[in-house]
Amino acid sequence: MVLILGAGLAGLSAAFHLDDRDVLVVERENEVGGLCRSIREQGFTFDYTGHLLHLRDADIRQWIEGLMPGAFAHLERSAWIHSHDVLTPYPFQVNTSNLPLAVRLECLTGFIETLRHPERRAIPVPDAVSVEPGLPHLAVAPPPAEGEPNFLDWIHDSFGAGFAQHFFVPYNGKLWRRDLAQVTGDWVSWSIPRPELSDVLRGAITGSDKAFGYNPQFLYPAAGGIDHLPRALAAALPADRIRLDTSVVSLDAGARRATFAGGETHDAETILTSIPLPTLARMTTDLPDALRDTAAELSHVSIRAVNLGVRGEAAHADAQWIYVPEPRLPFHRVGLPAALTPAMAPPGHHALVAEIAYLPDDEPGAEAHLQQTIDGLLELGLLRSPDDIVHTRVVDIPEAYVVFDSARRRALPELFRWYVQRRVVPMGRYGSWDYTSMEDSLRHGRSVAGWIREPTS
Ligand SMILES: Cc1cc2nc3c(=O)[nH]c(=O)nc-3n(C[C@H](O)[C@H](O)[C@H](O)COP(=O)(O)OP(=O)(O)OC[C@H]3O[C@@H](n4cnc5c(N)ncnc54)[C@H](O)[C@@H]3O)c2cc1C
Asked: 2-36+226-298+404-453 in CATH: which number?
């Protein structure tokens, strides 16, 4: 029997791909989906902040579109940045033409300066190595060597001092809530487009006419709510394979025995887990103390989403989300979900979703964040009056972003190896303690199922 801890996308995908096996998925919530759930209140639909589906793997795309025929709207990105009192299209580095001349010049001269040091742009982060053949998602780069550029170096070497000062450092500082020199260079540098000089110059004069970045097109359920995806996956499974309202409270990895709240125990041949790795380490009774200490060094950032239902049309009718690098404003991003599909808000209304990153031991509390958000949205002109707010829902995502630092690169291989040797396989965004997408979690579930079938592949 295969026991799957967590009915997020990774757990559901693993169960789907093991449909001929004896499988049980246990989930602590009263519904499936994990981070891909949606809240529906007073005609508004709020995801756990914007969840846009990018399906690059042809097999996964065929599988998901086959499972939900005609369900998805195919959308073009309309993302913006609010900076120096103007809106510029995303990505910032090829769209500075709306900005004040002095800012444009600083960005351009800084970028040109980086081209004089191509050797700095070329220093690679070592390749990530998986601890187990057949489980490509359990891959981590070796601990950083002397001289390896950190994320702050990477920003300066790739974009120069002007872009760093006017966008990358303030934006990422708000998101990561720490000195960016503590973030390692393997943090999703792939997702930040590094343009050519001609693109930067064109962007400073006329703006860009090219699609840059990893997400210019995406899918979103036309009926509104990303939870349509996990619900469709769960509906494809026999009902008795998923047990909701069942919290796993401890794990004996050597015996492959999970204990549920209430004391019931469950033994399995293989356990797949998408429980956040530091939580799993705390609940694993036979984990050696040294590994427990290592796991305790893993860090994360939490997100508070201030969801507002608002009367009237949105101030920027087509904007789907807006990045906000300015340090004086509490949020780093504002989503406008009704621009994805009108089904997200009642007629004559729209929604605003402000995302605020915080550290658990350093936050002012939800009430303060709500008030700061309303003030900030009024200042940006995204909210015309507090009287237009007809619904408020503040949602916390405690472990939202895994911090990429040297502790992570030291800890993960040892932890992964220890669990996999006992046939307890971490997977998903928080099981593998990674920065991954919905598609990645679907892929993790699929590859873990493949590994169970053919352990040496
Ligand atoms: C703010 C934010 C925005 C994002 N936006 C996007 C986006 O636009 N596009 C995109 O592709 N991806 C996005 N993602 C990433 C995406 O949400 C995740 O990659 C994916 O949903 C993770 O699925 P999972 O199954 O790996 O983990 P989870 O969704 O975390 O599932 C884990 C499950 O385990 C359950 N669980 C935990 N502990 C226990 C326990 N003790 N006992 C039983 N069950 C337990 C949880 O309740 C949960 O259901 C975003 C993430 C965040 C934080």
From this structure: 3.50.50.60
